[in-house]
Specification:
Blueprint lengths: L6 E2 L2 E7 L7 E7 L2 H9 L19 H15 L6 H14 L4 H8 L3 H30 L1
Antiparallel strand pairs: 1-2, 2-3
Helix pairs in contact: 3-4, 3-5, 4-5
Length: 142
């Protein structure tokens, strides 16, 4: 929500909250190159004062932004699903390909314990498949 009034001389000056829930504000000063200033002056203002928005916006998280992007990708690919299902598929696919639980947990941003808790049935199937391989080897020895 960059406002025309926030550009003073060759810099942008605005206050932002230090933290979302805080009332404390800090001054942000960003010097702008001359070519950027010239381009800004050519832009039409929205509602008479905003450069890039209509003056109405809300704070969103990076997680929400990626969820929306993935939803668009799923829609375009004509795939039914959510970002969470995509994450689950990613984890189970890796585990069935014998990628270590520690590595999958790290890629998911979880602890190994959490990964084992939520994906234990996939980990158990890996143990079963390893047991089947050992039985096969033992059968060949007899």
């Amino acid at each position: 929500l960059l406002q025309k009034s926030e550009i003073r001389g060759d810099e942008v000056r605005y206050y932002r909250k230090k933290m979302i829930r805080s009332e404390r504000r800090i001054l942000v000063v960003v010097p702008l190159p001359p070519d950027v200033l010239a381009r800004l002056k050519k832009l039409p203002l929205q509602k008479g004062r905003y450069y890039f928005a209509h003056g109405v916006d809300s704070i969103t998280t990076q997680v929400e932004a990626w969820r929306k992007r993935l939803a668009m990708v799923f829609e375009e690919a004509k795939v039914r699903g959510t970002s969470h299902q995509f994450r689950h598929t990613f984890a189970t696919d890796l585990l069935t390909r014998d990628v270590s639980v520690e590595r999958v947990a790290r890629w998911l941003g979880n602890s190994t314990r959490i990964c084992e808790k939520h994906y234990s049935h996939w980990i158990e199937s890996r143990v079963q498949s390893a047991s089947d391989v050992l039985r096969e080897i033992n059968a060949k020895r007899v």
